[in-house]
């Protein structure tokens, strides 16, 4: 095994490179992913090394990108497509929810569509309109799709490798404001099997920080904020457990339940609006499962039920350290 210190974007790049090397049926496709290497340089250098027939620049047509990927998957390929920004995915929504998500059920299990759709998502980079959305709940509501989001460099590498190997379609949400965060990634060397370094199953939540007084559950970009909140709370004598959910569909409710039945309190945090967000499903399910263990109502922290604001206002819109700590204090006050 080899351990490297990599930014999240570079970890994703290395995962794509390893997948291209391991399987000639893996193809990459998207807007400006070839010669430019993608707007966030996640695919930098891959077209040069693997050629234009495997790393393809597409037209500016998201419905066409996903529709083509479905056709390629039907012919035995494993396409990995990039939607350049989160707000650009909606022209492809019809292809994703009526074709990609339904084909396995429609064919009574005879057809599998191993398509990965990579989507940089979330705010925090000062972008213009349609470049800072968090649409994960829209896709998590659709049966037939796997929805995941890494928060660390290690998960970026390994979860993308696992997503590409999956025979089911995977929506892979990449927290764009974490692209430059560095972390350690353990990858197999020439004498090791890839499975030896796997940090966990694709949809398995992990305990990012152990605690006893309250559980903070988050995914993607908000895991780092929750870890910061746990450190700040510790200075006041509060022991906060932080769960990195990693997956929005399916959700690892067992790990959440185990944590909540230890701490007695749960706060769910995500950038997406609280209204009809993933936190609502988690709150309802954990209340059903662990009602007699709860010392306080499950609280949710997230964005407002409003269009994403101009860049100058996004820090007011995004849940930050103060809002998370306020929810922690409210829960502990019960």
Question: In words, what does this structure look like?
Answer:
The chain is of the alpha/beta class and 334 residues long. It has a 7-stranded mixed β-sheet with strand order 3-2-4-5-7-6-12, with helices on both faces. Strand 6, helix 7 and strand 7 form a beta-alpha-beta unit. The protein is globular and about 60 Å long. 48% of the residues are buried.
Helix content: 25-40%
Number of strands: 14
Flag low-confidence runs: none
Mean pLDDT: 96
Along the chain, the helix and strand elements come as: EHEHEHEHHEHEHEEEEHEEHEHEHH
Q: Count of helices?
A: 12
Keywords:
single chain, 334 residues, alpha/beta, five-stranded mixed beta sheet, 12 helices
Compose a concise summary of this entry.
With 334 residues, the protein is an alpha/beta fold. It has 12 helices and 14 strands. The mean pLDDT is 96.
Break the fold down into its secondary structure elements and pairings.
Layout: E1 2-7, H1 8-22, E2 26-30, H2 46-50, E3 55-57, H3 62-74, E4 78-82, H4 93-100, H5 103-106, E5 116-121, H6 136-140, E6 146-148, H7 153-165, E7 170-175, E8 182-187, E9 206-209, E10 214-218, H8 222-234, E11 240-244, E12 247-249, H9 253-263, E13 266-273, H10 278-290, E14 299-303, H11 314-317, H12 321-332
Parallel strand pairs: 2-3, 2-4, 4-5, 5-7, 6-7, 10-11, 10-13, 13-14
Antiparallel strand pairs: 1-8, 6-12, 9-11
Helix pairs in contact: 1-7, 3-4, 8-12, 9-10
